[in-house]
Amino acid sequence: MASELRRSLDRMRYEVLPVGNARVEALDPGSTVTVTASPAKGIGPTIDCAERLAAMGLHAVPHLAARSIRDHAQLAGVLDRLDAAGVSEVFVIAGDAAKPLGEFVDSLALLRAMERMGRLPARIGIAGYPERHAFIPDDCAVQAMSDKSHYADYVVSQITFDPRTIIDWARDLRNRGLEKPVYVGVPGVVDAHRLLRIALKIGLGESTRFLRKQYGAVSKMLARYTPEELIDELSPQLGDPGSPIAGWHLFTFSEVTKTVQWRDDLAARLSGYADRPA
């Protein structure tokens, strides 16, 4: 199991923000780096950042937020820029904007538009929600996942701190016939207070309700947070044919250097275990 986990560390996905200065120099060439979408600043900074990352030799994956794209003409322009930059993978989401900028109200609408245009990227990811969404009823979320899975190559889960919830949700996807691999969304090595603000802002399910009730205790817990405990709990799923869990998606919030250092330290420890005599 340690060897399987060790290999999964080399395939980690790293998510960064399209604003500010994410220091990605610590990443290995070819590493997958996804770029979030900002409802306040629009799709432009996301595409700008993806172009820069691709030019640096990284595998850039921009988030295409449906609600931040005005119309088919703007969508075509975005796809033209990605083609020119050699970016062949996208992560399609609805986006956090309260109202759509134009024609696309959700991620499915954007996926269908790209299909009609004959412009579906070579590889597409979609989001999944292990806990109940704060704004989307459960039955709607299940149907949306089913509809979008026709276009998707993989699913990335939203942040959830309970490994049992993630395992049960991933198995439920498989039981409902969704065979796509799942990359578990895990916070990277992030400042504790910032992580708590992010967790509360996301507004998802039981984790958030717990955090709101236990703010002080959780602040102390998160002060010691690293991704290791959650990944350790979930790592047996990597080799389980009954589970779709395929690896990790690190929400770095642009704190890439500390997250990569943590990964390298964990990989070194795992290699040490593997080298010990039986």
Note down, in words, how this protein is organized.
The protein is an alpha/beta fold and about 280 residues long. It has a single domain, classed as TIM Barrel (Alpha-Beta Barrel), CATH 3.20.20.220. Helix content is about 45%, strand content about 15%. The chain has eleven helices and eight strands. The protein has helices at about 1-10, 45-55, 70-85, 105-115, 140-150, 165-175, 190-200, 205-215, 215-220, 230-235, 255-275; strands at about 15, 30-35, 60-65, 90-95, 125-130, 155, 180-185, 245-250. An eight-stranded parallel barrel has the order 1-2-3-4-5-6-7-8, surrounded by five helices. Helix 1 (about 1-10) runs antiparallel to helix 11 (about 255-275), helix 2 packs parallel to helix 3 and helix 7 crosses helix 8 (about 205-215). It is globular. The two termini are about 15 Å apart.
Structure class? alpha/beta
Shape: globular
Helical residue percent band: 40-55%
Number of DSSP E strands: 8
Major beta sheet, strand line-up = 1-2-3-4-5-6-7-8
List low-confidence stretches. Answer: none
Number of H/I helices: 11
Total of domains: 1
Instruction: Sketch the topology as an H/E string, one letter per element.
Output: HEEHEHEHEHEHEHHHHEH
In the CATH classification, which architecture applies?
Alpha-Beta Barrel
- The CATH topology turns out to be TIM Barrel
CATH domain class: Alpha Beta
Whole-angstrom Rg: 18 Å
Our measurement of the CA-to-CA distance between the termini, rounded to an integer number of angstroms, reads: 14 Å
Main sheet summary: 8 strands, parallel, barrel
In round numbers, the mean pLDDT is 87
**Strand percentage, roughly?**
15-25%
GO molecular function, one term: methylenetetrahydrofolate reductase (NADH) activity
Protein name: Methylenetetrahydrofolate reductase
Pathway: One-carbon metabolism; tetrahydrofolate interconversion
Catalytic activity: (6S)-5-methyl-5,6,7,8-tetrahydrofolate + NAD(+) = (6R)-5,10-methylene-5,6,7,8-tetrahydrofolate + NADH + H(+)
